[in-house]
Amino acid sequence: MKPRRAYQVFRVAALTFVVLSLLAPLIWMISASFKTNVDIYDTSKALVFSPTADNYFKVLQQANYVQFIVNSLWVAFAATVASLILGVPAAYSMSRFNMKKSALVVLMARVIPGVSLLVPWYYVFANLKMVGGSGVLILSHMFVSLPLVVYIMMGYFDSVPAELEEAALVDGMTHLGAFRRIMLPLSVPGIATAGILSVIFSWNNFMFALVLSDADTKTLPVAIFDFVGYASIDWGGLMAAATVVTVPIMLIALFVQKYVVSGLTAGATKG
Amino acid sequence: MATITPTKAPRDASLATPGWVRWANDHRKWLLAAPAMIFVAALIVIPLVWTGYLSLTDTEGSVRADSEFVGIQNYLDVLSDFDRFWPAVGRTAAFTIVALLFEVVLGMAIALLLWRPFKGQKWVRVAILMPLVATPVAVGMMWRLIFDPNIGLANQALGWVGIAPQPWLSGQYTALPTTIFIDVWQWTPMVVLILLAGLTSLSDEPQEAARIDGASTWQRFRHVTLPLLMPTVIVAVLLRGIDALKTFDILYATKGRGGGSFHEVETLNVYAYGLSFDYNEYGVSSTVLILFFLIIIGSMWALTARRKEAKR
């Protein structure tokens, strides 16, 4: 059939174009991170250049990036673990007891502009001498990850049949025992999904660390700005810094693609 | 003769459990939910109420500084500010509406292209995921290099086809459209994933019925697929819309404080941030934030109402 064939050709062409437009800028960023600033300014060396790792030495040694990588990892990890500890039981209860209004309160956190929380937070945490420490950063990132965990896990618990739990009760388990021994093990894929998304969103978060961190505790997205001066921009260093932030998270997403997609689309198709 | 009923065993077991375990089980609903709720209340509800209070005062310089209760004066001032506030509202609306429009139309087109399985689909999906997980600040920096008027790839590419170089992010009128383009690049994949999940969950039968009735491809999309997919489209618009209204990272990364020297990309979020942390005008900034919050809630409410309609 002729029209089907024409559609297949069009489909391949269109999808190739889509893939190229999505990946080319990222490839451009990574290739610029291996160029000297002279080569970046020389438009004739756009594609052909002799690669150098100098920018990465600059980022990792002079700019103290190892510290910022550790900061970002620690904040993302701690905020995620704390959100899972608070969020998973809450999501279970909200799902089983159909606590729509309580869930709405937690999910409101997704809607509120972060700036409106930062002023009160800054005041309270400055009085507690916590501004600049990593504790306050972890708390602020939980503001992003807790609603995410509750949202994803509520959807997950909704999909686990209540009969499994009832069977455990008949066998003599308590309700909490059934939650711990039956529901939690069953929900490991959901917890993995929620945890991975929480790490990604915390790692990428910029605004909270911009206000609440200091020179030693700042995370990678804030540290990127070290390469933007008032007068000029160190493009090579900036692209290396941007690559150091984005490539690890893209690699993680590559390996756990299934979880990332199911987390991002959670709740999109149900009533 | 003693008979042992099956229900006896669990009852004995529960009697043997200590009192606090029974108490915990009886109150499990709130025991499990309360920690998260208290956390949210302490970190979100109280600050929000405080913001509401600050918006009624003339607090500036420091939150601890002496301030007076000025009632709705800040609201009157902000709502009659055609210099910064209303332009920021306009930019927020323009940014959100135009970005959403492109993201939904492109997202729908790409989702339809990906719908039926084909060889290599896995790799296309990987490519779609990449912009989505990339750090927005880094994405802003990346496009800043590409759109640099002198050394950027964008103007070079225009040169190959004989078009004059454009100022992109540094132009007074081209900056906002350029940031919208960046948002579309990064977040169209999100719409694709959501719509693809919706398309995959549709049953084949209505499609088949329409095909047998002789409906063309376009007719099948317009009158079968699209109405069935409408609730999912609205979820995508809702999720993306909330984030688009609050866009901050790429605007700050590409244009810096105040949305550039002419406030070219100063949206409500950027404006409120500047008032709070560059000028310490806490009273006025709280007013802007409360109004911004109402705008977000209002648009969400309108969309949710629309979704209920679409599902009927």
UniProtKB/TrEMBL annotation, chain A:
Q: Which residues cross the membrane?
A: 12-34, 73-92, 104-124, 136-157, 182-203, 235-256
Question: What residue stretches are annotated with the ABC transmembrane type-1 domain?
Answer: 69-256
Residues forming coiled coils: none
Kindly indicate whether the keyword Flavoprotein belongs to this entry: no
Q: How does it sit in the membrane?
A: Multi-pass membrane protein
A Gene Ontology cellular component where this protein is annotated is:
plasma membrane
Name of protein:
Sugar ABC transporter permease
Q: Name one Pfam family in it.
A: BPD_transp_1
Q: What is its main location?
A: membrane
Tell me which family the UniProt entry assigns to this protein. Belongs to the binding-protein-dependent transport system permease family.
| Protein keywords | Cell membrane, Membrane, Transmembrane, Transmembrane helix, Transport
Q: Which SUPFAM superfamilies does the UniProt record give?
A: MetI-like
| Annotated compartments | Cell membrane
According to its UniProt entry, the protein's GO biological process terms are: transmembrane transport
